[in-house]
Write a structure and sequence with these properties.
262 residues, alpha/beta, Rossmann fold, N-(1-d-carboxylethyl)-l-norvaline Dehydrogenase, domain 2, seven-stranded mixed β-sheet, elongated
């Protein structure tokens, strides 16, 4: 637990049983003073697996969700947040876990907030939450203090943010995570087509990630575009004539790098 003192046992409820819900549930259980009162999911099999793993109860209908839990985590897709929250008849605080959706996506009848961990989550393994930034918002100061205390139980890095700040951070997160991973996918496919193993790039990927933790991104930039080496760029573009989609990506990013070189 980080930054707050243990008080009474908190009861939390999960609406949604996907990767984020699993990671949050594991982190909260490890605090020793948070009880998972139940789970609801539109996919009953997922809810059942969640309930078995975390020793809790499945609720098959939204109307049956207990009304008196302390915090309800709405860990669902952005498109489902409003429709589900409009059906909730609860007295506790309902938080959605989206980096993009506004607080107003939650029903006006609820005590509500935002609880957004700035991280990518996989079903393959649980993450250590203590160093993951958690961005929070609350409709009322009293609700925000409770959300903040709950967040501090699993993370050392809890930030009160404004809606616009959260959305801007989410956009940057999409670029550094989702876009980067797509480039890994593209590179892996290119290597496979040329009978080469993607594992050969893993030490480079590791060094690239490590470097960015030590120096500002603009100082970590290397490669032909950063040197404005037009000869090398032309030769690599020639290699890509059979792959117009990758050639388009190559030219766009190379141009962006050169535009940012002082």
């Amino acid at each position: 637990m980080f930054g707050v003192q243990k008080t009474t046992l908190l009861n939390i409820f999960f609406i949604g049983s996907g990767k984020l819900a699993h990671n949050l549930a594991m982190a909260f259980l490890q605090t020793g003073d948070i009880h998972i009162a139940g789970v609801y999911s539109r996919t009953p099999a997922h809810a059942k697996a969640f309930a078995v793993k975390f020793k809790t109860i499945v609720f098959n209908e939204i109307k049956d969700i207990p009304a008196n839990c302390d915090v309800y985590f709405l860990a669902v897709s952005d498109t489902a947040i409003q429709s589900i929250s409009d059906q909730l008849l609860v007295t506790g605080i309902v938080v959605h876990c989206s980096g993009l959706m506004p607080l107003s996506a939650l029903s006006a009848q609820l005590h509500k907030g935002v609880f957004w961990p700035v991280q990518t989550f996989s079903g393959a393994y649980e993450l250590e939450f203590k160093n993951i930034p958690v961005c929070i918002e609350g409709n009322e100061e009293e609700d925000l203090k409770i959300i903040e205390a709950v967040a501090h139980r699993i993370s050392k890095n809890v930030l009160r943010v404004k809606e616009k700040e959260r959305q801007q951070l989410h956009l940057a997160a999409v670029v550094v995570n989702n876009f980067t991973n797509h480039l890994f996918v593209v590179a892996a496919k290119w290597l496979q087509e040329n009978n080469l193993n993607f594992d050969l790039l893993k030490p480079l990927i590791t060094e690239t990630a490590n470097k960015i933790l030590k120096v500002p991104p603009y100082l970590a930039q290397t490669g032909p575009a950063s040197r404005k080496d037009l000869v090398t760029i032309a030769k690599q573009e020639e290699l890509l004539t059979s792959n117009p989609s990758l050639l388009k990506i190559y030219r766009l990013i190379s141009s962006g790098i050169m535009d940012n070189i002082e």
